[in-house]
Amino acid sequence: MRQKMISEEKKIVLLNLMPMKEEAADDIRRVLSYSSVPFKLCLMKLRSHVPRHASQEYMNRYYRFFDEMRDERIDALIVNGAPVEILPFEDVDYWSELCEVFRWAHEHVGSSLFICWGAQAALYHLYDINKFRLPQKMFGVFKQKVLVHEHPVFNGFDSDFWMPHSRHTEIRREDIEANKHLQLLAEGEDGSVSVVASKDGKALFVTGHLEYSATRLDWEYRRDCERRSDVGLPVNYYQDDNPRFNPRFIWKEDSIRFFTNWFDCCVKRTVDEKT
User: Fold this and answer.
1) What is the pLDDT of residue 2?
2) CA separation for the pair 267, 5 (Å, rounded)
3) 85, 116, 151, 165: which one is catalytic?
4) pLDDT cut 90: percent of the chain above it
5) For a pLDDT cut of 70, what percent of the chain falls above it?
6) Dihedral angle at the C-alpha atoms of 51, 38, 77, 53, nearest 10 degrees?
7) 187: Cβ–Cβ under 8 A, 6 or more apart, which residues?
8) Which of 85, 170, 187, 211 is catalytic?
9) Is 116 a catalytic residue?
10) Catalytic: which of 165, 209, 220, 265?
């Protein structure tokens, strides 16, 4: 009976807030594909927001509205980042509907993974954890330190791992540590917040982008260079810090291991609750 349940296809929903919708969905699909558990990735959109960088045809074909999916059985939810981090949360045009998603996920979804701005937004709404502007953009691939080795999401990890970041704001460590419902699982070399878990086991919050493909930061760098002249190179990314060389995909194994662990933990909990 248990073996049969594990082999069932799991339904994972991605609320895709990234501007480049197809690439972002492909990134998530790629890192999840390394799990041995079959899954279906379903794409969610919000009625209160019309994407500027994706065609209406694409959105209508592959995405469904939140209110059309909220009564379905969903095994896991992923909410990724959005280029609105400088705005106060309440000024984001879809903030009210996004808060509905957060509340729904907390009550009805077995496991949720919040990424970058999605993590900041969920922490703010669910736990009143605010974000703060950084002196300069955190851009590149940074070494992180595992603090809670026994947490299943870090099964097979060394003490350190690599994670891409691309953000203008941060979550303060002291705010996480002061909240009795949250646990800091990993930090940056500078002591910054990297991975946070809710103590009820239902949510993970990741401040960077472990799901990124090898070329994603390169695309962001070249896009920004077209817009302004003061763009810094992404840290620890290009060989010899030379953008004429191919990027180094130094976080690949860590990203696969992290998402596989998260997915397997989610599946195991779902199976255990059924038996």
Assistant:
1) 44
2) 10
3) 116
4) 85
5) 94
6) -10
7) 144, 145, 147, 173, 193, 194
8) 211
9) yes
10) 209
d(CA 126, CA 15): 17
Distance, CA of 150 to CA of 147 (rounded, Å): 9
Each residue of 84-113: pLDDT tens digit?
999 999 999 999 999 999 999 999 998 999
Known catalytic residue: 209?
yes
Each residue of 235-268: pLDDT tens digit?
A: 999 999 999 999 999 999 999 999 999 998 765 5
Contacts of 156 (CB under 8 A, 6+ apart): 257, 261
Give the pLDDT confidence of 196-227 residue by residue, as tens digits.
999 999 999 999 999 999 999 999 999 999 98
pTM value is 0.94
pLDDT for 268: 58
Amino acid 17 reads L
Taking the alpha carbons at both ends of the chain, their separation in whole angstroms is: 9
Reduce the secondary structure of the chain to three states and give it as a string: CHHHHHHCCEEEEEECCCCCHHHHHHHHHHHHCCCCCCEEEEEEECCCCCCCCCCHHHHHHHEEEHHHHCCCCCCEEEECCCCCCCCCHHHCCCHHHHHHHHHHHHHHCCEEEEECHHHHHHHHHHHCCCEEEEEEEEEEEEEEEECCCCCHHHCCCCCEEEEEEEEEEEECHHHHHCCCCEEEEEEECCCCEEEEEECCCCEEEECCCCCCCCCHHHHHHHHHHHHCCCCCCCECCEHHHCCCCCECCCCHHHHHHHHHHHHHHHHHHHHHHHC
Q: Which two tokens stand for residue 192?
A: 């910054």
